[in-house]
């Protein structure tokens, strides 16, 4: 038996897909840099609003003004890798065109296939779209140093997995709901508001704040930022993210099975 | 020009009306997305009574005025930011040989009537803010003037962003920093920003004339930078000046454009 180099073991399939995802996004470096520029400009605007709020209420939500500024630029840096405005997957387009039938009969898990590509994408965007806002924030306002760098990177990685698991569910729902744009808008509303991208969830009042901090979207921006700032216990934070990642991935796997049973391939 | 625009926009509106459920849902989506801004303002004022010297109703008034202007400009001219796609796909060539101004064609192409949802939401916030403010009749006439000036300023920004894309076809998102960035910037009283930025927005890129200077006039409040109270009345002039610059930039972009020819 001969093994064709590079096409052999299935173990190498997913790392390979991740690498392709990375390379594919690296092609559009100008668009990524333009996105980084826009994220940076909005970061500066958000920072001023939060500085004004923290001047009125020093120590609000357990942050000082420097923490609030750091929080702003970190969450702006997460927009690209975590795809906080949604999208990043080809799946809805492939469902609409019917190409998904091909994906579903491949001898590989559709969910892991997409996850691998998405992780490659996230690594590239973490550097190219995450770096500039953080640097500019540090130069203009000064940001605090990471409290626990290793835990932070782990938390970002888990955040990407939660983000992917959520976007995969939204994308796959296109199989049942014909208009995917409405779903995309709904997902964007939930993600931008409950991830902490608009305002830190720590300043949301009362039961609404408790609820928002327990929902999965907080794992995408609020929790990694808290791990960076040292305002959350790293072990508990990572456990929270891992729990939501497991729940959402399991739900996505169930939906994949249901989609596979639902799809009808027309011969021809 | 206006007739051509209205005709093209009406065609797209009729197309959108073929899917009434989608249209209703997308309009409602616009209201909800705008509602998020209000939720953020609500969270801020749940934590503090004043932000940079302004109370909740004043912020609602300033927010409503600038966002109504932006939403209307986005409805009418927002599709100018799709020009890089027209350049890349070659459809701009088709527009250039048609007997209608390319500006009108690009602005009205894929006209999206459901963007009216954002205008409705912003208009409602403006109305609520104004009704709670007790503005004297002698100054309330400035409100429609500032909204119209704001529409012109944001339309000019969309035009400038479109003209910029003749240079930056690979990175059209840069223009968003100026158009959507301008809308975000004017959501809160400009007193939250560094005075140097506010000066730049007064004497350079005239975003201070969208809602800040005319808003101070309507509210009867002194300018933190010490400019006289009639500065706000200059909004229409500032809007026309920016529109003239944008028109020149657009013409330069069209003139400079060279088709790939295939």
From TrEMBL, chain A:
Pfam families given in the database record: ABC2_membrane_6
Keywords: Membrane, Transmembrane, Transmembrane helix
Domain of life: Bacteria
Coiled-coil features, chain-numbered ranges: none
InterPro entries membership: ABC-2_transporter-like
Transmembrane segment boundaries: 26-49, 122-144, 150-170, 182-208, 238-259
PANTHER family: INTEGRAL MEMBRANE PROTEIN (PTHR36832:SF2), SLR1174 PROTEIN-RELATED (PTHR36832)
Protein name in UniProt: ABC transporter permease
